[in-house]
Amino acid sequence: MGKKNRNKKINRLTTPLRGSQTVTANGVVHLSKNPEAPVFWITLIIPIVCFVGAWTAPPVATPMELKSYASQIYLAGLLIIWLLLNLRFNKYEFKFCSARIAFLCLFLFGTASIFWAKNPDFWIYKWNKWYAGLAIFLMALHINLNEKNLRTIANLLTLAGLITAAVGISQYLFGFNQIPQSAFPSSTFGNANMAGQLIVLTGLFPLFLIFSEEKSKSSTWFYALSISLIFTYAFYTRTRAVWISCSLQIVLFVIFAALDKSNRPKWLNWSTNKSYSALLGTTLFIVMINFDQNGFSPVWEVAGPQIASITTSINSSAAEGEHRYIIWNSTLDMFKDSPMIGVGLGNWFEAYNNGGYADLRILGTQRAHNDIFELGAELGSIGLLILFTIILSMCSHIYRLVLESEGQKRIFLTIVTIALTGSMLNAQVSFPYQLPVPLIITPFLSGLLINGAECYGAKIHIKFNSLFFAKIGVFTSSTLFILILINDFLWFNDFKKLNKLVSEMDTETPWVPKNPFYNQAYITAGRSVVEALKYTDTQGLSNNVINVLQSYWPTNFANNFMMIESHLRSGDYTRAEELANLTRKLQPDNVFASEFYLMQIYMQTGQWQKLEVLYDHLKKEPENFLSKIESAYSMLHSASINLQDFEMTNIFFERFIKYWGENAEILANQGIYYINVGDISNAALSFEKALLINPDMERADEFRQFIKDYSDQ
Question: pTM, whole model, 2 decimals?
Fold first, then answer.
């Protein structure tokens, strides 16, 4: 008995204290004897930001801004708390590996780009998102990847996907419209494409919970229904990039499960109950993708055109007007002009719109629609080199996991790998890594993957006894938290004031943002306000908003054109003409957008001599230049009728149809041309076509009366 007691004491003495275990790992920073990272509170931010949205239905909805503020404030605050907990321990261990070093270098290089960024305000806008990503990445590196914590993470990621899917499905099937949407069905994200990026990153995690040891029969059914709803919503988004990414993920998972025969019994806990739940989930998915708000809608009628459009886009080109190719060409030009260090973090938006790279076919765009291209433009070859180092390092970790991992950790980290792979594919034709939600989920999953792989690696570390670094970390993170809190509050308050002006239709009070750091979303939100007020009698409010944008970007074409249009609608032709002439001096050669605004002004004010001079000049310009501007042939067509240059009218009409197709305005003007040349039957036919396209178009009643009179003859 005495010997057994002595053995028990020895066993207790050889058991390490909680939080002081030395993990066999290599990394950048690891605190030895530190408390376990709070996995629940770290992961909780993901479902929180999925729920955050414009639930009060403001007239100017900025859901991605709300998600940004929530993630930045939450994670910056949580990082302080976690660092404060570590102050109780004075023995630290610095560790190094290529993946951690590369992630840290990318953040530091992006931070350093403030010194060459042309627009520091936009640097701040993006750096805040990067800091939130850094915070969750650092904490993910210190999560204990035991089965309990893995289930916690998977449950919260499933909840995030389920929240997004539930709201999106209610919008798609039941017309739920409490939350404003720009691209239906957008869930809480305002745009279906952005919501789909969340699905790509979280959609497979219910599988981990299904394959794990069954805690209860009801929970298995819940997870099966969850993954069914999540992928149903992915289908409802009708987003090509999301469809391709999710399809790749499913294929990769099937290949892994098929090839992992020797390890499969250790991570696959299957049962009859799971078979039935899987059958129900699959059946529910197949049924739901055949329905929309109007009832039964066969899946092939929805999927067919989308799949065909993928082929069309791939086979298209910038010359044919494919928007992504146009933007990518401009982005590559940007990279060529600043190949080493780029234009600075967050400054793609500035460079594209004010650096001479904008294409008049796509004015005002905020993203490159390819995250690797955008990173190359912003941080140059150095940024790309760091990114490729990250990718290679992660591949090395994945290879190590394939060789050595097992059990629940193996299947969990496999799903993490597949989620990141699908997201990276999505980033080639979209912009997930410019948005707040993917910018916290991706570093979080990357940190977990590195953390898990390091459990099978060799230790490379430096130990020292000091509180110095912990105190520096607490001081720095606390300072940044205060700055981010103040900055985000001021940005939020500026949008709140804009919403107040729009909701009250206040045409007298100017909108003056208080935050000295200009938010990119001021521009996109302001332009949406101007666009929404285009056909209202509140041009004073529209002018107040566009004045703010123009004062910040005085030479920006998109702002100037919106200002010209606003003055045209309010009848201030003198100011519109002044702005058009000013923009004409600024625009590049072989670009004639300002000239067409001047033509419109001259026609509406009866300045026929000026119109004729400008018309004679423009009609001789090459077709390959004029075809890039939608209004070019429409305006020339209208001017040819006013100036009775009927020989050119049909030519301009045919060229417009060739490049832009039929619209109500061009058909109505062609009808007026037919009246001028005495072709009454074709005039009536043109008016009928125009009214079919737009029954409420300008002068619609006159056209209907003409058709009636003609038919009565």
Answer: 0.87
